[in-house]
Amino acid sequence: MTRIDLRDVLKRTVSGVYGDLVTRRTGQAVRDGIEELLADVDGEQVAVIDFGTVRVLDMSCADEIVGKLLLTSGAARYFALVNLHEGHLDAIEPVLERHGLAVVAQTADGAVRVLGSLPDAARRAFGVMLSDGPAPADEIARRLAVTRDAARAAVDELLRLRLVLPDAGGYQPLRCA
Amino acid sequence: MTRVIEVPAQFDDRSFDQFAKGFAETDGRRVLFDAHATQWASPYGLVGLLAAGQALAEHGAERPLLTLPQDRDVVHYLVRTGFTRHAEELFELHGKVPRVQAHGDSDVLLEVTPVRGADDVHDVVGRIQERAAAILTGELHLDPQATMGFAMALSEACQNIVEHAGTGGWVAVQTYTWRRRLGRRVVVIAVADAGVGFRRSLEATQAKRFGDRWSDAAALEAALIQGVSRFRDPGRGQGLAGIRRYLNRWQGKLTVRSGTARMALVPPWDDDVPLAEQLPPFPGAQVLMIVPAQAG
Description:
The complex is a heterodimer. Chain A is about 50% helix and about 20% strand. Chain A is an alpha/beta fold. Chain A has two domains: about 1-115; about 120-175, Arc Repressor Mutant, subunit A. In chain A, helix 1 (about 5-15) packs across helix 2 and helix 2 packs parallel to helix 3. Chain A is elongated. Chain B is about 40% helix and about 25% strand. In chain B, helix 2 (about 45-60) packs parallel to helix 4 and helix 5 (about 120-140) packs antiparallel against helix 6 (about 145-165). In chain B, about 50% of the residues are buried.
C-alpha cells in the first residue's frame, strides 16, 4: 500500500501557502505529482489518497485529481480515497458519475463504500464482502440469495473496476488502511 | 460632451437592467456614470459597475467619469467594500473618497476583489474561509460542512471568469438581513466580468445544435441546465451544476445574466422569473448567489 497525502503533494507541486484544492490548474499539477509518486510503484499495490488535510475541494479540481487520474491510470492500478468529509464527497461523486467511474472510499468517520457509478448487484456484492468478510463468488451468491451467474457477473464487474482484490480463492474489498 | 448613465438609487440585481439599458445606449461620447443620488448598492451592483468600466476600457473608450454618492454613509460603504480602490483604476472619480478604517465585525465577507487568474481564486477561497465560517454556521445556521460547499461554489463562479471570460472580473461577498424581502439573514455572492459572455464562449460548439434557437438564453440553458462547456473534455461543464446543487440544497437563489438574457434558479421564497429574455445587452456575465439563513 502506498499512502499519498494530498496536502504534501499540493505543497510540493503548487505552493506551501495554499491549503485548498481549487482550480483546474492546481488539480492538473497535483495529479501530475501523484502520477510521479506512483511511477515506480507496483500497480498491484493499492494507492491510498488521503484527503484528511484538504479543506476545500472544488469540482474542477476533483475532476482533474480523481476523475482524470482514474481515467488514465484506473485500469492499471488500484486506488482508494480516504478521510473524505461531506464537502469532498459533494465534489467527487458528481465527477465520478459524469465519467461513469467508481472508486473505494473511506469517509472521515471510518465508513467504507464505493463512490460513483456501479450496478446495483455489484454494489450489493461489495457490501456483503465488506460486512461478512472475503468470499468466493459461490458464497457471495448464497449471501445475496442470487444465482451463481449473477454473483459471478457482479464480482467480475468489481474486478474490472479494481474495487476488489482476489484473496485466497475468494475476493475482498480494497483495504483503505 | 458626455453621455450620462444614471446609477440607480437602489443599485442591485433588480435595478441592474435599468443600468444596463443606459449602458447599452452609449454612443461613443465620453460616459459619466452618475451615482450621486445612489442610496444603496449591493455587491451585484458594485461588481457590475466595475464591469461596465472595464468594458469601456477594453474598447478603448475615453476613461469614463464616476460621480460618487453624496450620501456620506454610502460613500463610506463603497470604500469599506474596496470598490473605490478598483474604481480609481477604471474611472475618473468625482467626489471625495474618505479614509475609512477597516471594521473587524464587518458584514463585508469579501471585499470587491479582482479575479484574473487561478492564484486569485485560491486567494478568494482562502480569505472567505477565514471570515465566513463563523457567520455561515453561527448566524445563517448552515451545517459546518456547508461552508466547504460555499467555498466550492464561490471557487467555481470565479473560475468561470478565468476559464471562459477572456478577461478579468470581480467578486464580492456580503451578508445582510433581508427584513422585508425574506425576514432572514442572507449571504450574497456577486461575480461579474466584461468578457465574451456565454453565447460567444459556447458558439463554436453549440450554435449548430440549437440552430435558429441559438441566443443568449439558449447559451445559458446549455451551460446551466445541460452542463456543456466550450471545451470538448467531458469533465468540463460541471462547475455551474455544482453551484446549482449547492444552492438547491440550502434553498438558495442563483441568477446568471449574460448578454440579453438572465436565467434563475428560483427558491420558494422568491418571486423571480426562471428566464428573462430581450433584456438590455450588457457585456460578459454576471452571477448572483444568495444563501438564506436556515431555520435555527
